[in-house]
Amino acid sequence: MKALVIQSGFGLDHLAFEERPGPVPGVNQVLVRVRAASLNYRDLLIAKGIYNPKLKMPRVLGSDGAGEVVAVGEGVTKFAPGDRVAGCFMQGWVSGPISDAAAKSTLGGDLDGVLAEQVVLREEGLVSIPDSLTFEEAATLPCAAVTAWNALTGAGCGPGKTVLLQGTGGVSIFALQFAKALGARVLIISGSDEKLTRAFAMGAAAGTNYRTNPAWDKWVRELTDGVGVDIVIEVGGAGTLDNSVKAVRIGGHVALIGVLSGVGTFNPISVLMKAVRLQGVFVGSRTMFEDMNRLITGESIKPVIDRVFPFADTPAAFHHLESGAHFGKVVVKM
Ligand SMILES: NC(=O)c1ccc[n+]([C@@H]2O[C@H](COP(=O)([O-])OP(=O)(O)OC[C@H]3O[C@@H](n4cnc5c(N)ncnc54)[C@H](OP(=O)(O)O)[C@@H]3O)[C@@H](O)[C@H]2O)c1
């Protein structure tokens, strides 16, 4: 079977297809025929050697995949051949607080990932996918959607709350859909006016372009009667954090998720003067994934797919993600 690996060096030029023997499920393991996978910004960081410069190679990339169960190993009770499933980003985080062991069980990083025709996953690291979703749609969920869900629910998102989103990539567009479903008001910034228009059509109340309006924190305060938003879904990192803390209300919540803007300076004084809660988010547990799937089913939420590439064109899918031209998720179909 074919797998997409990073081998013999970092950089998108070192993405390659490898022929590997078909994997066999061991005790408490499940063999899954991957039908679709989705890419995350993390996959770019891993391929470029920024995420983990000590990554063991060759490594099969990709944390997010969905498919059907082909066979189960001894001791497996929850799944049977034919079941439609997705892998959890962390194979070892079932529920409760994150542990060191869970954080070191990530697909496409610590462990071989899902950009392969077949994968063996742990029974405890699998979820059933909603009947309402195609394999392509379900393949968008494990990282970006669970992260958005964990960040919003961990921040107490609900009716009466205002949430600020940054950009229109995977995490932010899921956060838009979930925040709306939870009853919150959404403000959004993007580097593209056209993408802002699409976000309005999805229910964002207002938006501004962070390229033409770099002082977007002022815009946020104006729109919130000088108060600031309750929650910021912070995917920009060092280059946006200063503005995010200025844009959040006193006692508000900033969910620290991403590093899109690269380096920057950050002054912590306003964090303490405003008693802001800065909460790091690392994807989420299987229980969070299952809770989120219930909302997706109940609210008939459809993941927003920007483009689907055939498996053979996975390197082109990486370049498309790198371009930042996408809105929502970039998917690969096996
Ligand atoms: N902590 C975690 O567990 C976790 C989980 C998932 C993702 N992440 C991180 O979260 C970030 C987003 O991931 P993703 O997969 O959603 O990425 P993505 O799909 O590649 O989204 C990238 C989008 O972000 C926007 N963007 C780029 N630079 C920006 C800036 N300076 N300010 C505001 N928006 C900016 C752009 O949208 P516009 O064109 O609309 O401006 C761009 O298209 C990445 O840093 C990723 O590593 C972390």
Describe the structure.
The protein is α/β, with parallel strands linked by helices. The chain folds into two domains: 2-140 and 303-333, Alpha-Beta Complex (Quinone Oxidoreductase, Chain A, domain 1), CATH 3.90.180.10; 146-280, Rossmann fold, CATH 3.40.50.720. The protein contains eleven helices and 16 strands. It has helices at 41-47, 100-103, 135-138, 141-154, 170-181, 193-201, 216-223, 241-247, 269-273, 286-298, 314-323, and strands spanning 2-6, 15-19, 29-39, 59-60, 64-72, 84-87, 118-122, 126-128, 162-166, 185-190, 206-209, 229-234, 248-256, 277-280, 305-310, 329-333. The strands form three sheets. Strands 3, 5, 6, 7, 8, 15 and 16 form a seven-stranded mixed β-sheet that branches. The chain has a six-stranded parallel β-sheet with strand order 11-10-9-12-13-14, sandwiched between helices. The chain has a three-stranded antiparallel β-sheet with strand order 2-1-4, with no helix packed on it. Helix 6 (193-201) links the parallel strand 10 (185-190) and strand 11. The longest helix is centred in the middle third of the chain and has 14 residues, at 141-154. The chain is globular and about 60 Å long. NADP nicotinamide-adenine-dinucleotide phosphate binds next to helix 1, helix 4 and helix 5.
